[in-house]
Amino acid sequence: MFICVFCASSQKIDRKYLDLARDVGTELARRGHALVSGGAIVSCMGEVARAVRDGGGHTVGVIPQVLVDIEIADTDSGELIVTGDMRERKGLMDARSDAFLVLPGGIGTLEELFEIWTSRVLGIHERPLVVLDPWGLYAPLRRLVDGMYEQGFTRPNVFDAISWTTTVEEAFDLLERPAAHLRPTAEEIGES
């Protein structure tokens, strides 16, 4: 499987997040999967990619030219695809991926999570989406979505479209399991 990992590029984060990213890359390679990433060598992105390669796995990095220009591209990537902009980058990452794993990250990671999650809820794709959150960074987000559901802004399948876990092993078990079939009706789409 080609597993897309969305994660932090910040270099100001606690070391535990970098260690988590390395553990994810190690497990990804151990299970025989390939990595699709944002193509940067910094922070968690770089840790995941290096760990995959250290384990003998294949990496595909997709990065916009503007980030290549500031010299953060993962030039050791098995495949490094340079795009014109961020939208093209996300589209190619999506197209190359069989499943999605979200690690703790900032607003860019959230934006990627929401796009994949929304398209999953709408039935545009049926690939697994898993959030690995050992320290509860996304707990406020989960409460927000619960509140949105209670207020009628989302439908019940918003919860069926995503899996949450706190361990690397469970995250990969969930990624390797077929995702639930979600096909909303026109009425359901109009409700949210």
UniProtKB/TrEMBL annotation:
<keyword id="KW-0203">Cytokinin biosynthesis</keyword>
<dbReference type="GO" id="GO:0016799">
    <property type="term" value="F:hydrolase activity, hydrolyzing N-glycosyl compounds"/>
</dbReference>
<dbReference type="InterPro" id="IPR005269">
    <property type="entry name" value="LOG"/>
</dbReference>
<dbReference type="GO" id="GO:0009691">
    <property type="term" value="P:cytokinin biosynthetic process"/>
</dbReference>
<keyword id="KW-0378">Hydrolase</keyword>
<dbReference type="GO" id="GO:0005829">
    <property type="term" value="C:cytosol"/>
</dbReference>
<comment type="similarity">
    <text>Belongs to the LOG family.</text>
</comment>
<dbReference type="Pfam" id="PF03641">
    <property type="entry name" value="Lysine_decarbox"/>
</dbReference>
<dbReference type="InterPro" id="IPR031100">
    <property type="entry name" value="LOG_fam"/>
</dbReference>
<protein>
    <recommendedName>
        <fullName>Cytokinin riboside 5'-monophosphate phosphoribohydrolase</fullName>
        <ecNumber>3.2.2.n1</ecNumber>
    </recommendedName>
</protein>
